[in-house]
Design a protein that fits this description.
With 346 residues, this protein is an alpha+beta fold. The protein has 4 domains: 40-93, no CATH class; 103-184, Immunoglobulins (Immunoglobulin-like); 190-280, Sandwich (Immunoglobulin-like), CATH 2.60.40; 300-342, no CATH class. 16% of the residues lie in helices and 34% in strands. The chain has helices spanning 2-29, 300-308, 316-325, 334-342; strands at residues 70-71, 74-75, 81-82, 86-87, 103-110, 116-121, 124-130, 136-144, 147-156, 166-172, 177-184, 190-191, 193-197, 201-207, 213-219, 223-229, 235-241, 248-258, 262-263, 270-275, 279-280. The strands form 6 sheets. Strands 13, 15, 16, 18, 19, 20 and 21 form a 7-stranded mixed β-sheet that branches.
Length: 346
């Protein structure tokens, strides 16, 4: 029995030695590969491992590979890419790709309540809009070609007086959106006398932004300043006592200050003469759009006048009114009532 156990132990030992010998031969016969990563040398003009670029070697990449529509890549001194020479234009439509390079301009500001605001560029009228009760207006110009533009704005209040011109340049680049906001157009201005007796009062008035501060300049040899405020409808009035003025020709202009932050340009200039007599200025009554009875309001009276002529042949006198204050197509129909609804004051 003891002899049998000894034989088993010897066999196990032999098997262990054989296995170890086999494993050693396997290790000896195996080959081990060691890879060394050597960083690129920045500045040798060859894009190597760890570099985005080197000199003019961009590894075959262009601006297009990074979402741009064109332009040229450049390489920084530390071998990183520089995209300042690339041009971007957003894609349009479902077909993908890029389109012609256009720009967009958004123009907004304050005129006078319900005034008509005209936008011009390079001497051509581009758009006309109407300011709201709060005097705010806005224009959006899409698909503009890149280049230099000279824009001009002016407004016309509900009594037909115009603001001064507001002009500003814009340089538009491809794919760019430019916002020109908080533009404050000048007030409109007028006087009630062509000639005023020295010592009497002359009224200086017009329209501006609701509750704006109004600065009035009156000048001849010396410039004098006076202040007043516009009401909630934008109307302002200043009664100037002319005892502070010398006899002769004088000139008045006004500017508005909104919320102590925005300041307009000066208005147009109106003139009057201080003398030994007063001569009233004939004020031409301007009838607004849809104001059929010319009372300064658009309400049920105007509606009833239009309703009378609905689908009827117009009289010669009303045909003139329809041409000036409604659609101007020689008849009264739903188009005219929609115009009336737009200008409705109640």
């Amino acid at each position: 029995m003891r002899k049998f156990k000894k034989i088993v132990q010897i066999l196990l030992l032999v098997e262990f030695i054989v296995l170890c010998f086999f494993q050693i031969n396997q290790i000896k016969s195996s080959s081990v590969t060691v890879t060394a990563i050597v960083p690129g040398v920045c500045g040798n003009g060859i894009k190597e491992i760890g570099e985005q670029c080197d000199g003019y070697d961009f590894g075959g990449q262009t601006c297009f590979n990074f979402g741009y529509s064109g332009g040229s890549l450049s390489c920084n001194a530390n071998c990183t890419l520089n995209f300042s020479g690339c041009i971007f234009a957003p894609p349009r439509g479902s077909g993908g790709g890029f389109v012609s390079l256009y720009g967009k301009i958004i123009i907004s500001g304050y005129a006078q309540p319900k005034s008509e605001v005209t936008l011009m560029s390079d001497g051509t009228i581009r758009a006309i809009t109407r300011a709201g009760d709060d005097a705010k207006f806005s224009f959006i110009l899409d698909n503009l070609s890149p280049g230099n533009y000279l824009f001009t704005l002016y407004s016309e209040d509900k009594e037909g007086r115009r603001s001064n011109l507001y002009t500003f340049p814009v340089k538009l680049e491809a794919g760019q959106t430019i916002t020109a906001g908080n533009i404050l157009l000048s007030p409109t201005i007028d006087v009630d006398k062509l000639e005023v007796k020295r010592g009497d009062f002359i009224s200086i008035f017009g329209y501006a932004q609701p509750e704006a501060n109004i600065l009035i300049s009156v000048s001849s040899d010396e410039e004098l300043f006076f202040r007043t405020n516009a009401n909630r409808d934008g109307f302002y009035l200043y009664q100037l006592g002319t005892d502070v003025l010398e006899k002769g020709e004088h000139y008045a202009k006004s500017k508005s200050i909104l919320a102590n932050q925005l300041v307009s340009n000066y208005s147009r200039v109106v003139s009057f003469r201080v003398s030994d007599r007063s001569v009233a200025k004939e004020v031409k009554k301007v009838c607004g759009k849809a104001d059929l009875n010319c009372d300064g309001r658009v309400n049920l009276i105007d509606f009833s006048i239009a309703a009378y002529w609905y689908k009827r042949k117009l009289s010669p006198s009303f045909a003139i009114i329809e041409k000036e204050r409604l659609n101007g197509d020689g008849k009264v129909d739903l188009v005219d009532f929609s115009i009336m609804a737009y200008y409705w004051t109640g």
